[in-house]
Structures are given as C-alpha cells and as structure tokens.
Write a structure and sequence with these properties.
This protein is mainly beta. It is built from one helix and five strands; from the N terminus they run ββαβββ. The termini are far apart.
Length: 84
C-alpha cells in the first residue's frame, strides 16, 4: 500500500536526497504496517521523533508501535522545537 511520509525541520536530513527539499516522500509499505515499522528504515533517532500525526491526528509515543497505517495515510513527524 502507498502512504505519504512527511518529515519536518532537521528530520528532512533523513529523507532520500530527491525528497529532502520537499520534505515529502511517497512510499510503498506492507499492508498493516505500523508507524514504527515505517520509520525504522530511515533510522530516525528516537529522541528526534517528537510529534507524530497520522492524517492530522496525534499519535502518542506508546501507540506508535501498534498504530497500523492504511492506504493513502499521511504520516507527518516533527522533532522537538526549541525557541526563545
């Protein structure tokens, strides 16, 4: 099944070079793949996976290993944001 993965801020460094400046990549994943299974190949540091949304709905850290994605889902991930 196809989903869209969006990585923001410093996480764009983990995307393929062809997607780095758009922050979006469409990927093929197995049916029922979880958020954790989708992100593992990108080797995102767990400390940088802060805000996770699926189709705009927040997914808590304890649900990411069991939250199954569906065809056409949009998975968006942000690192922690600091500012002053």
């Amino acid at each position: 099944m196809k989903i869209t993965l969006k990585l923001f801020a410093s996480l764009t460094d983990y995307l393929p070079v062809t997607s780095k400046y758009t922050n979006i990549v469409e990927i093929e994943v197995p049916d029922g793949a979880t958020i954790t299974q989708v992100t593992e190949p990108y080797q995102l540091p767990p400390a940088l996976v802060h805000l996770v949304l699926v189709n705009g709905r927040y997914i808590a850290p304890d649900q990411r290993a069991s939250e199954a994605l569906a065809e056409g889902d949009v998975l968006a991930i942000w690192p922690p944001i600091a500012g002053g």
